[in-house]
Amino acid sequence: MTPTLPAWRRATTGERRWPVAVAVLVVAGLQLTLPDEVVIGSRWLLPVLEIAVLAVLLVATRFETEPVWRRTVSLALTALIGVANAVAAVRLVIHLVEGRGGDDPGPLLATGAAIWATNVIGFALWYWQFDRGGPTARARGDREVPDFWFPQMQSADLDPEWEPQFVDYLYVSFTNATAFSPTDTMPLSRWAKLVMLVQSAVSLATVALVVARAVNVLR
Fold first, then answer.
1. What pTM was computed for the model?
2. Contact present, 101 and 95 (Cβ < 8 Å)
3. Cβ atoms of 173 and 121 closer than 8 Å
4. Residue 53 and residue 51: Cα distance in Å, rounded?
5. Which member of 51, 67, 162, 214 has the lowest number of beta carbons within 10 Å of its beta carbon?
6. How far apart are the C-alpha atoms of 147 and 128, rounded to whole Å?
7. Residue 70 and residue 47: Cα distance in Å, rounded?
8. At what angle do helices 105-130 and 166-179 cross, to 10 degrees?
9. How many Cα neighbours within 13 Å face the side chain of 176?
10. Beta bridge partner(s), residue 186
């Protein structure tokens, strides 16, 4: 008898959008806490725009089918979050290096934490958007070779109905941002390795500079 393919290798009903929607709303909330010195334009501009784009994407509840326009808008939203957070991180680093601001450790740590958390969610969205062609391609089982090798993929006996969803990519992003290296999930493709490298570098720079400045102020 032919063994049944695990869920991640065959067509399935796909995953629901609400975890992604919650993540984007969290990002919008974190951006509202950032000081004006590090944000692009008004602190309300990007959160309002992101929520508006999210509302468009929530027209569909699953990922079995996805028109080109929705895929494009979804990637644009992810890029918007990434660029906005990169600008905030760079501006914060410049301010700290030049000795401008950062005289109060409380707000400084809060700003650093918001940028770091947004970094985790933003890169989770990138991993989720591009692994094996994205959520729709994964739901259809279009690509057999994964970009990320999860532990559940090593043996179908663990859970034959398992397939990666956004929470799994969020976990990968969190562990990469804290350990500065892969943990239980290995990147296989070159793009995945390079993106994880960039995330680790951003996370390390943010944590190191913010904590160092806060410790210096406290002393």
1. 0.88
2. yes
3. yes
4. 5
5. 67
6. 10
7. 19
8. 130
9. 29
10. 149
Q: How far is residue 25's CA from residue 203's CA, in Å, rounded to a whole number?
A: 21
Tokens coding 111: 């700003």
* Residues in a beta bridge with 149: 186
User: Could you report the per-residue pLDDT of 42-59, keeping only the tens digit for each?
Assistant: 778 888 888 887 777 776
CB–CB of 152/194 below 8 Å? no
Which residues contact residue 172 at a Cβ distance below 8 angstroms, ignoring those fewer than 6 apart? 124, 127, 148, 182, 185
SS3 149: strand
In which band, very low, low, confident or very high, does the pLDDT at 97 lie, cut at 50, 70 and 90? confident
Q: 92-97: long-range contacts at Cβ-Cβ below 8 A with a sequence spacing of 24 or more?
A: 92/38, 92/206, 92/209, 92/210, 93/205, 93/206, 93/209, 95/37, 95/38, 96/209, 96/210, 96/213, 97/209
Distance CA 26, CA 117 (A): 9
Flag whether pLDDT at 195 surpasses 60.
Answer: yes
Contact present, 119 and 203 (Cβ < 8 Å): yes
Q: Please tell me the distance from the alpha carbon of residue 1 to that of residue 129, in angstroms, as a whole number.
A: 35
